[in-house]
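Project outcomes to date are best conveyed with an example. Our students and postdoctoral researchers have been running inverse folding experiments weekly, and each run begins with a structure described purely in tokens. The record below, which covers 321 residues, was selected by the lab manager from last quarter's runs and is presented without edits.
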């Protein structure tokens, strides 16, 4: 690895002393001076909220769950600024079950401990040269996993090319403002795919909930399915906030109210709640499609105007007050 890491920003999460020494020493030898070590989840979350990083290295030995959660939350952050940071998870117990959990967190790579500095260097160099496209499902956002969408019964996941902050920083010398612009533009695309997937997931869950509550007495899993529906629509409402999908957000609020209404009488549900559920779900699908088309048209107009303006006035001085 012959790249200059002087401008690269790295966050280390929960490393043991030996691992911290190897990682900081390796990166330091390549010029990296912006390294922060976070012992606890709150520290990592604070840093991810307050700064933009290029590489996240997480040690999973203390807690597999915390390591996966750190990467997963980074991939799904509402602001999106760090959603495409490269990530490497370190583990000394690469058993098949653990590896599946690590991969499903959305990490770019897994490095088995103990490792030599050369192994870390090779892994980072590989990530700089090549990055897999992201896939988006109702439950996953991250690099393409082997077999995504190829197994019978799995949803076909769209593949989205995303920025590579490491490559942009060490090879293209991209400024932070320009990198942030690229990241946010890609995040809009990823987020839109996620909204589409979750809207479809809602329709599926609504049918399951209606079938469970339609029995007399309601099925044993009725309450659990209702909880899944509530979690899905609540996340969807947060995801559409401020994105232009106003009608979807309004309908999501309506569906949340319906879920709470059904939850108050699980053993004897009000048939009117069950009757209106599919109507709201169908309206959400239609509203998403209509508003997405309007947003796309607005973006195309904005991009065309901006391109023409820059071509006509290439050296305009920008003044901010």
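After processing, the design step wrote out the following sequence:
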């Amino acid at each position: 690895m012959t790249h200059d890491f002087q401008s690269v920003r790295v966050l280390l999460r929960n490393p043991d002393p030996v691992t911290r020494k190897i990682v900081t020493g390796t990166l330091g030898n390549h010029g990296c001076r912006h390294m922060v070590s976070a012992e606890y989840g709150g520290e990592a979350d604070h840093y991810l909220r307050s700064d933009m990083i290029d590489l996240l290295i997480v040690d999973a030995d203390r807690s597999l769950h915390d390591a996966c959660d750190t990467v997963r939350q980074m991939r799904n952050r509402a602001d999106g600024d760090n959603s495409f940071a490269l990530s490497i998870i370190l583990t000394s117990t690469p058993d098949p079950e653990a590896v599946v959990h690590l991969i499903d967190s959305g990490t770019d790579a897994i490095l088995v401990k103990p490792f030599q500095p050369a192994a870390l260097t090779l892994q980072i160099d590989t990530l700089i040269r090549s990055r897999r496209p992201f896939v988006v499902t109702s439950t996953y956002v991250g690099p393409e996993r082997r077999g995504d969408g190829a197994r019978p019964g799995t949803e076909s996941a769209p593949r989205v090319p995303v920025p590579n902050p490491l490559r942009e920083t060490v090879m293209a010398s991209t400024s932070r403002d320009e990198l942030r612009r690229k990241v946010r533009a890609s995040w809009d695309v990823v987020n839109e795919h996620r909204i589409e997937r979750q809207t479809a997931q809602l329709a599926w869950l609504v049918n399951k909930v209606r079938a469970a509550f339609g029995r007399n007495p309601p099925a044993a899993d009725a309450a659990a399915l209702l909880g899944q529906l509530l979690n899905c629509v609540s996340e969807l409402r947060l995801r559409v906030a401020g994105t232009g999908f106003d009608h979807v957000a309004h309908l999501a609020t309506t569906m949340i109210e319906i879920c709470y209404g059904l939850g108050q009488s699980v053993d004897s549900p009000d048939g009117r709640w069950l009757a209106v559920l599919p109507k709201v779900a169908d309206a959400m699908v239609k509203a998403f499609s209509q508003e997405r088309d309007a947003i796309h048209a607005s973006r195309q107009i904005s991009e065309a105007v901006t391109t023409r303006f820059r071509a006509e006035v290439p050296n305009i001085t920008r003044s901010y007050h």
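Confidence is low (pLDDT under 50) at residues 150-154, 316-321. The two ends are 44 Å apart (CA to CA). The training component of this project remains on track.
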